[in-house]
Structure formats: structure tokens, C-alpha cells
Amino acid sequence: MTGRSKLAKRLPYREGSVFRIPLPDGSFASGVVARMAPRGRILLGYFFGPKMFSADIAASDLLPSEAVLVGRFGDLHLIDGKWEIFGEMGGWNRADWPIPEFIHHDALHILPDTIVRYSDDDIVLGTRERRPVIPTGLAEDGLMGAEFVEISLSELLADRP
After folding, report:
1. Where are the alpha helices (DSSP H) in the chain?
2. Paired strand residues for 88
3. What is the average per-residue pLDDT within 48-75?
4. pTM of the predicted model as reported, rounded to 2 decimal places
């Protein structure tokens, strides 16, 4: 048994896992694990509305193009059970759930913005590239904590039914 397969047996999630995220108003959002670091802990997720008020998630209704948030996040609430694993995407194909490019802003505003691309094999490993023109609409590079994801989803879904 390889180290990765031993690890997969210990973690409650894997690529293609569907989970629900409780929001402060008592509703839920949903997410899909699209990539994970070889040892877990850091994941890439696609997050979805609309807000749900029941435990039902129809995984077949989750489409990458309809995600309200895509980003790297920590697995704390998947490990402690606050975010419930609901099931798996049928016929999981990682090519259908690509890793987007992200934009990185220099905290001191000295260096120009860069595009960050993460490895398909290890979501921790990223490369930076400077381009003369940065595309608009890229998500911010960073690592979201579980609470940050909950707050962000609450704000993004506030005006949606």
C-alpha cells in the first residue's frame, strides 16, 4: 500500500467529495474538493449557492461554471466534522474541474501583480508569472481558512434566494 493510499483511508475526503457548509443564518452552501495536497490539509474547492435549508445536495446539479467561489482552503472543518461530507461526484474527472489562475498582489505594492498557477499534482506548489496585461476577474491568491470561507459564502449568497 502506498503512502498516498494509506493517507486517503485516514482522511474523510478525497477529490470529488461533496460537502455542505453551515452558514450563520442556519442555511447551507455546498462545496466540492477539486484538488488536494499529497498529504491533505490544503485543498482547492469549488463553492456553490444557492443557500439550502435542508441537508439535501444534488451533486449532479453542481457545475464548475456555476461556482460562486473557487480557491485554496484548509481542511479544518472537513476533519472536525463541522462541514459534513455528503457524498461523491459521480464519474469524477479532474479535467472537468480545472485549477484556475489566481492573481497575487504584493503586500507592499512595490512589485507588480503576478499570475499564480498551481500544480495539478500538488496544490501547494505554485509558479508566478508576470504578464504585461493581467486578465480581469481572477480570484485572489491565498489560502482561505474555514471561517473565512463561511463568511465569504454568506456575503456572496446574501442577496440570492
Report:
1. 3-10, 76-79, 146-156
2. 17
3. 88
4. 0.88
